């Protein structure tokens, strides 16, 4: 039998990586074009949360100095469809959901989800709360609408794993004064137990409004190209985590069965173990 100290196992990301990075940006604005170019250049992935009920009309010309410039439907599709980024719900019209009836919340969420699925030809299962606000009624409505996770504007300045995916908290906003300190820690450390997740959020128009695109440049330069980091969308991280949570272990943790269609990795004692989809493997050395 395994000794007691050998009974713990810890998730590792694809390839046995101990860390993951994801970004989340809201509203579908013109500055997303620049942001996505920067992300793609650095091999970083993320999620863009879109309000499909308030696209800019085709032919819109914004006045000089306007920073928040929503894109047209056509521009959004052209930008995101083959970008490698995830498209997620941000509601139809960006209301404060906690002020609405449950029925209206459902209309806002399901309507946006339906529109985005029609535009992009795939299920849309994630979300970010407009203004970051919600209550228990809103959360239950999201669950009924088939939303798997929803990001708040709350943050914890750490790399801990999410516990409540419908009240998802980020590591920080890109304007957080501790951003580069956190980035340095993320890059330098190797987690011994649970893996690290760095979750960054914001609005790309803020870079223009604050004249600080250099913040994102410095961040991407620091975190990209690392062999021990998985660069993924919000949904990819959610789905992988849920696959890991479905692993079935023997009583003494001597073997593990993976009932899912996703190959997952874990750390058992000091070993990184691959558990192929549909297979049972030994955890004994």
Report on this structure.
The chain has helices spanning 32-42, 73-80, 102-120, 136-144, 179-188, 205-209, 213-223, 234-245; strands spanning 9-12, 19-26, 46-50, 86-89, 126-128, 149-155, 168-170, 172-173, 196-202, 229-231, 248-249, 255-257, 264-268, 271-275, 280-282. With 285 residues, it is of the alpha/beta class. The strands form 4 sheets. Strands 2, 3, 4, 8, 9 and 10 form a 6-stranded parallel sheet that branches. A 3-stranded antiparallel sheet has the order 1-13-14. A hairpin with a 2-residue loop joins strand 13 (264-268) and strand 14 (271-275). Helix 1 packs parallel to helix 7, helix 3 packs across helix 4 (136-144) and helix 5 (179-188) runs parallel beside helix 7 (213-223). It is globular.
Which percent bin holds the helix content? 25-40%
Sheet with the most strands, sense and barrel status:
6 strands, parallel
The average pLDDT score comes to 96
Number of DSSP strand runs: 15
Q: How does the overall form come out from the CA principal axes?
A: globular
- Computed over alpha carbons, the radius of gyration is 20 Å
- Decide which structural class fits the backbone: alpha/beta
Series of H and E elements: EEHEHEHEHEEEHEHHEHEEEEE
Low-confidence stretches: none
Euclidean distance between termini CA atoms: 12 Å
- Which percent band covers the strand fraction? 15-25%
Put simply, the count of helices is 8
